[in-house]
Backbone:
């Protein structure tokens, strides 16, 4: 499935020189196990065969890489097929770092959400209360989640900030989380397992003591032969209070260097849940989870689920934007709006798993929609993309944005006569402007489904 015709552009180009004989130039592209080299001074003659280079990179000392050189159709440009054990690990790290950087830049500057923004919350509304018999100060947004008390039901969902800016981004997010007393997730720690000096990017607790921090790894890491050990290392690395395992089938299938082995993951999750000293969260990333899957995960011992529905950031689509191949862009466009809308996934799972702690993530863009998610049975509401963009702005960006969410949620609660988050489920109705009978029935159904 790995496609060598799909080579990720290296930006900036990295200089190299030959380890034996002469020859130097720039590395202009990279793929799994492959470097695309441009010669700026003499191209080798004959132009094929074994070849060794020292690659210079700002982030690490010169990397020795050897492999088999073949010419491409472009003059002066060759592909170096790197042999296992002769620089492949370095290349993998380089590719991971580059990918994270591209993700941030694409998320900052492009439209990366589902094209219609449909999360399903559009089909629900909350019944206003003209006489709430409450003061603004009476509104109580406090909640508990995974055994910890929080002031708000909002979660900074796990996001990779890349290598260069990751530390700063995570510090800004942690500052907001600690100030508002809400939980925070970090992005995939895989890169720091491969390169331990990057632990500093994720280790935000050292400056934000008391923060509830959720670690993050992909199901591909769990799936590895030493997967359980990797998870334990990720937990220790950041003194995590919970660990999220993310699953994103579409993204992995579209990403040029994606991991596409999903067989046996449930069994590994079961083992992880048995061995982990902290709660395990399984996190879908945009396709929404079905109730049947949720049930299997609960039976495997998973402590909480992030339903990760459709309508927000579309990761398959982002991988298309990264690609240089028209075919991949086409496939990514096909799957841009794939998945179960967040509200529908949440509602269905809540109706079959009454007590399961649920996080609603995917396209939640204000405190009113967050209130609808809570009314539909979410225990926590996760926010991703808007917080990443806010964190890229300035030190206080995430705190400012979350303060708006808090205000909108509090207003919604007062305007629906709900003193506590628990009360919100009684105000849920189909939108827009339901008939009285329909309204009554909806609220009754809500009760029967255990929303209260
Ligand atoms: C820049 C960026 C990086 C992300 N990195 C990760 C990651 O490393 N691991 C993960 O589980 N989810 C990651 N996510 C996904 C988010 O946690 C979230 O599930 C997704 O963005 C949907 O929420 P949204 O619509 O509010 O953005 C990332 C999201 C963004 C925007």
Residues:
């Amino acid at each position: 499935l790995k496609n060598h015709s799909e080579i990720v552009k290296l930006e900036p180009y990295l200089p190299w020189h030959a380890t034996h004989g002469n020859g130097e130039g720039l590395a202009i592209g990279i793929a799994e196990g492959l470097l695309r080299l441009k010669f700026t001074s003499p191209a080798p003659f004959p132009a094929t065969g074994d070849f060794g280079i020292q690659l210079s990179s700002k982030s690490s000392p010169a990397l020795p890489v050897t492999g088999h050189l073949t010419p491409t159709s472009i003059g002066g440009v060759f592909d170096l097929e790197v042999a296992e054990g002769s620089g492949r690990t370095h290349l993998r790290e380089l590719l991971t770092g580059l990918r994270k950087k591209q993700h941030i830049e694409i998320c900052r500057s492009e439209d990366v959400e589902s094209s219609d923004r449909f999360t399903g919350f559009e089909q629900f509304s909350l019944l206003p209360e003209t006489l709430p018999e409450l003061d603004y100060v009476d509104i109580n947004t406090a909640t508990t989640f995974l055994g910890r008390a929080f002031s708000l039901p909002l979660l900074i969902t796990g996001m990779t900030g890349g290598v260069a800016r990751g530390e700063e981004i995570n510090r800004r997010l942690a500052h907001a989380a600690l100030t508002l007393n809400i939980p925070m997730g970090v992005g995939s720690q895989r890169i720091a397992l491969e390169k331990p000096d990057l632990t500093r990017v994720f280790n935000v607790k050292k400056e934000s003591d008391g923060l509830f921090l959720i670690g993050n790894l992909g199901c591909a890491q769990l799936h590895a032969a030493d997967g359980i050990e990797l998870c334990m290392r990720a937990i220790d690395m950041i003194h995590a209070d919970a660990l999220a395992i993310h699953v994103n089938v579409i993204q992995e299938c579209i990403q040029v260097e994606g991991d596409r082995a999903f067989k046996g993951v449930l069994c590994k999750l079961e083992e992880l849940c048995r061995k982990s000293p902290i709660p395990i969260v399984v996190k879908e990333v945009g396709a929404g989870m079905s109730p049947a899957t949720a049930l299997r995960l609960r039976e495997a011992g998973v402590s909480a689920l992030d339903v990760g529905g459709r309508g927000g950031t579309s990761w398959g689509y982002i991988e298309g934007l990264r690609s240089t191949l028209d075919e991949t862009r086409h496939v990514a466009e096909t799957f841009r709006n794939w998945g179960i809308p967040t509200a529908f996934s949440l509602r269905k799972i809540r109706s079959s798993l009454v007590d399961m702690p649920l996080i609603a993530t995917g396209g939640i863009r204000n405190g009113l929609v967050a209130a609808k998610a809570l009314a539909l049975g979410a225990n926590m509401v996760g926010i991703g993309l808007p917080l990443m963009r806010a964190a890229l702005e300035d030190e206080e960006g995430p705190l400012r944005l979350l303060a708006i969410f808090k205000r909108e949620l509090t207003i919604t609660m007062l305007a629906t006569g709900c003193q506590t988050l628990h009360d919100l489920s009684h105000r849920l109705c189909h939108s827009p402007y339901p008939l009285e009978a329909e309204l009554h029935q909806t609220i009754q159904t809500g009760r029967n489904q255990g929303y209260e």
About this structure: The first helix runs from residue 88 to 109. The pocket of flavin mononucleotide is lined by residues 103-104, 107, 157-160, 187-188, 216, 246, 283, 285-286, 308, 312-313, 361-364, 383-385, 388 (CB under 6 Å). The longest strand covers residues 60-71.
